[in-house]
Each structure stands twice: as C-alpha cells, then as structure tokens.
TrEMBL record:
Keywords: DNA-binding. It holds the Pfam family YlxR. InterPro entries: YlxR, YlxR-like_sf, YlxR_dom. Transmembrane segments: none annotated. Residues 13-75 form the YlxR domain. GO terms for molecular function: DNA binding. The keyword DNA-binding applies. It comes from Streptomyces lomondensis. This is DNA-binding protein.
Amino acid sequence: MSGRTRARACPERTCVGCRERAAKAELLRIVAIKGACVPDPRGTLPGRGAYVHPAPVCLDQAVRRRAFTRALRAPGALDTKALRRYVEQTTVAEKATP
C-alpha cells in the first residue's frame, strides 16, 4: 500500500467574522466591487475574496471589526447593505425549507 487515501482533501477557509476555519463550501465568498461588499455564492467573480459564514452573527462581527476592509484590502469603508440583504434572505429560506 502506498499510504494514500482515496478521499480528496476539502479546501478550508477562515471566516472573517468568527475567525473559525470551515470547509470552503460552507462559507460565502465576498468581493469588493465599486466600494460595496457583494456576495459571490458561485465563487466566480474576479478580484480578491473574503469568506464569511452566511449567518447574521458572523456578518455583524465582521462589520464591527472592519474585517472586510482589511481582508479585501479596500482603501476606505465598504457598503454592506447588499450583503446583509443576501444573508437575511438565505437564512429565511433555510428556515422555511423543512
């Protein structure tokens, strides 16, 4: 036996809100576009990305700590209204689905 396993390694990222490591598939990628934080659920938008759990608690922590500005290397404050709306919609949809 070569000692190799057939299971593939799962890429991990760190949530900028709670600073916990999680599988990339569990986190939401965020990209800065024209001074605003934009959700990138498919992970295909160009540019530097930051990851956060799609939960209001982690989002609030990241905003309070100014983690998006630092992680995305933005020159000034970023607008998070669209991101907050997206996270709230996804959490409501998850609760409605049995």
